[in-house]
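To the team - zinc ion complex, inputs and output below.
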Amino acid sequence: MQALREGITELDAVLLTHPHADHLHGIDDLRPLTYEKTIPVYGYKWVLTEVANRFDYIWAKRTQQGGGLPHLEIIPIDKKTLRKGMSIGNINIMPIPIVHGKLAILGWKFKEGEKRFVYITDVSRISFISFLKVMRCNVLVIGALRMSPHATHFSFGEALHFAKKIYRSPEGKKYLREVYLTHICHNHSHKEIENFCTAWMHKNNIKRLTISPAYDTMRIEL
Ligand SMILES: [Zn+2]
Ligand SMILES: [Zn+2]
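Output:
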């Protein structure tokens, strides 16, 4: 529905974080976007194996060709891509290894010129190496489930604590402009979370930074 509303008729690639249903089960809706071309789907190998098992008809020889199969090419992230990233169009894309409970999953960093955007969701721990990759981003979207702690997700406080760590780079320069919380559960209203973010900024003496809950129809300018 979101893609229809926004008039999205083309996709360059699909980047998977992990194979939980809330992140994967829209895959059937990719089919009309693959009539003209094959879309590459990137992710960890174990994630793509899971995709191929759960949606096996996409790649199975036995599937009859009547309405046409989705043309998706699964491309596992290799060690070189983990180190150096990959290019899609003009954008350099870097996988960011993160931890989601007991699962090793991925966030993604997008870089075009000096513009850096990081998307991380379903995260409960971020290693120092991944922190270094995120450090100089301008806009951070980060998963934050609720006020109280959770075994597999950052709470609001944990997500903002991470944002604070990258607020000032080691050279003292401020790259981070905007932080948006995503993957929020239904325990709190949008207004309550906005108030929490504002109070948190005062308490931590953080200025010239937008921190707010993300919302549907939101657009981000880089
Ligand atoms: Zn998940
Ligand atoms: Zn999720």
